[in-house]
């Protein structure tokens, strides 16, 4: 838990930084990052598929009337694909998975009208949601028993 400390007139920044360096201030304990892996392969290299959780298939549509302001057509498509991947990762995590295998992007239709500063994009993505286990995260007792 990260706590926030106020600096008031009694404590100066130098005093607080000395307290933090001696371990007297709030402590931050780093947690391992939760990563959702996405791959077009049917497996994750170096990992074992523990459980199949389902299939996802999405169609996303994005329209804009500010192509020039968003970095042109390439910036618009780049931002859209990044948001699509973030949404897919969120759905995988919501289903209790930590990976998507057999990922596909079958359709990407792009319409551009530069005279009106407009653009539309349609993307179809999908894949299989799975729960994977890396060998380093399996306890030694469980590895010896198998």
TrEMBL record:
InterPro entries membership: C2CD5, C2CD5_C
Chain segments annotated as coiled-coil in the UniProt record: none
C2CD5 C-terminal domain mapped to chain residues: 38-131
Superkingdom, natural source: Eukaryota
GO biological process, alphabetically ordered: intracellular protein transmembrane transport; positive regulation of D-glucose transmembrane transport; positive regulation of protein targeting to membrane; positive regulation of vesicle fusion; protein localization to plasma membrane
A molecular function GO annotation: calcium ion binding
Assigned GO CC terms: plasma membrane
A Pfam family hit: YbjQ_4
Identification of the protein by name: C2 domain-containing protein 5
Lineage: Eukaryota, Metazoa, Ecdysozoa, Arthropoda, Hexapoda
């Amino acid at each position: 838990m990260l706590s926030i400390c106020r600096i008031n007139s009694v404590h100066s920044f130098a005093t607080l930084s000395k307290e933090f360096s001696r371990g007297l201030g709030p402590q931050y304990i780093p947690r391992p990052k939760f990563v959702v892996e996405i791959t077009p392969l049917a497996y994750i290299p170096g990992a074992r598929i523990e459980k199949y959780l389902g299939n996802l298939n999405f169609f996303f549509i994005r329209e804009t009337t500010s192509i020039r302001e968003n970095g042109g057509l390439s910036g618009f498509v780049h931002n859209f694909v990044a948001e699509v991947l973030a949404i897919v990762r969120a759905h995988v995590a919501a289903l209790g998975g930590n990976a998507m295998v057999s990922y596909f992007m079958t359709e990407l239709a792009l319409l551009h009208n530069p005279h009106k500063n407009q653009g539309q994009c349609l993307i179809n993505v999908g894949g299989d949601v799975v729960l994977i286990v890396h060998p380093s995260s399996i306890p030694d007792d469980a590895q010896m028993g198998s």
